[in-house]
Amino acid sequence: MNKLNIGIVGTGFIAGILAPAIQSSKNAQLSAVSSRTLAKAEIFAADYPGVVAVEGADWLIARDDVDAVYVATPTAAKEEVARRALAAGKHVLIEKPLHSKQSFERLSALAREKGLVLMDATHFVHHPRTAVMRERCAELIGAPRSLHTMFYFPFSDRDNIRFDPDYEPMGAVGDMAWYSMRAVVEYLAPEVLEDIKVFAEHDRQSSAVIRATGVLKFDSGKTATFDVGYTAGAAVMDLALAGTSGILTQDDFVLDWHSGFGFDNPDIQTGFVHRSGMATRKDFVFIETPSEKSQHGLMIDNFANLIRNGDDAARETWLSATAKTQGFLDAIWREIQSQG
Ligand SMILES: NC(=O)c1ccc[n+]([C@@H]2O[C@H](COP(=O)([O-])OP(=O)(O)OC[C@H]3O[C@@H](n4cnc5c(N)ncnc54)[C@H](OP(=O)(O)O)[C@@H]3O)[C@@H](O)[C@H]2O)c1
Asked: Which residue intervals define the domain GFO/IDH/MocA-like oxidoreductase in the entry (predicted)?
């Protein structure tokens, strides 16, 4: 079967991470890249022989050799680029976060109407670890009751979009609590948010949110806490899922140390730790979940596979997870905004 031809809109940081993953995919390939400035697209495309450089998203979307569009722009531009791509009959892989749940629902309605795939670009859900932890959760820890996530990386470049609320309205919340909320959706699987409290720290110069901590209470008494930001001077990606008969933990839940982008440590296994009873550290059990390739590489394969072989139910599963994640993120954001 022919490979899926993907065009990338945007030539920034994450576009540069995904382009090689697309090129090395078994069922997709990169066909074009667009920038608002042709010269930037040409510089980007020069690393990928045969890839066409285009000025402006509309010209990329209109190309016959583009079956699907990867939207790698700041949040402020995502909906409009994705809307145009879907309207033109192109499948869409869209960067997280969205502007709001309503924004995502406008896009998902259009994708359904056109019979197209719309998927968000969260990497960790594609690692086999996520499926294994979900499958073994009841057996290992009983019913999941509480999830804690802590995600920090040191970052202080005020020229970056993360410090510009016009580009990234939710700042570190959209950038990082997205993963906390996606972990809630994947591992805690609540239905209804009943209560929430959030504390946020803003950058004095830009007013961007640079750190946030919060607690969410869901139906059936499930709870989640999160702590995210750029300000701790260290990278941390901790997750702890507490059930009724044990606890599962990860210390690299967003980007696995083994081959998540930014890390390349073949000697660090990917997996999760199981603990129960009055166990000490020497009794903890590490459950390894190896992967044949990086989680962002798997995301590209799964996106292409969903387009070629996925049924409506499979497509809806992805749409539902994105909508729930964005809905919880919006609740965090409303709580922060309500504090003025
Ligand atoms: N999934 C992940 O693991 C992951 C990781 C990092 C970032 N992200 C997300 O990806 C998004 C982009 O982040 P980034 O770090 O790649 O940012 P970035 O380095 O600033 O790149 C964004 C690119 O989008 C293009 N762009 C900027 N403004 C635009 C506009 N108004 N309309 C159309 N295109 C525009 C620019 O390319 P041109 O100048 O060439 O047009 C720019 O290089 C963010 O929302 C971020 O949260 C996701």
From this structure: 140-248
